[in-house]
Amino acid sequence: xxxxxxxxxxxxxxxxxxxxxxxxxxxxxxxxxxxxxxxxxxxxxxxxxxxxxxxxxxxxxxxxxxxxxxxxxxxxxxxxxxxxxxxxxxxxxxxxxxxxxxxxxxxxxxxxxxxxxxxxxxxxx
Length: 125
Fold this sequence. Notes:
Layout lengths: L1 H16 L5 E6 L2 E5 L6 H12 L6 E2 L8 E2 L5 E3 L9 H16 L6 E3 L12
Parallel strand pairs: 5-6
Antiparallel strand pairs: 1-2, 3-4
């Protein structure tokens, strides 16, 4: 029940930061996706990633119940930008996921934009 309450709180916090044109949705587990239509630049996407990550600056409530607790969470954020990083939804999603995996390797709260090295096979030394 606490996990479900936290997911609702996180979703509410992310939706509260989204503009009318941006779409926030849960894609599974504790992962959310945010669609930013027509970003003006990669820097604008990076700025929005950090603004969404700021939702995790304060603890989240475990729900509207007696004896509720507050839990601090950290967010890792990965993003990909069309058309530079791909031209179809599947490619963009896969590359954003690669950026997310790379962000998770850093300390909590990391925000990374996709770079080709995130999906290219390692070159032998």
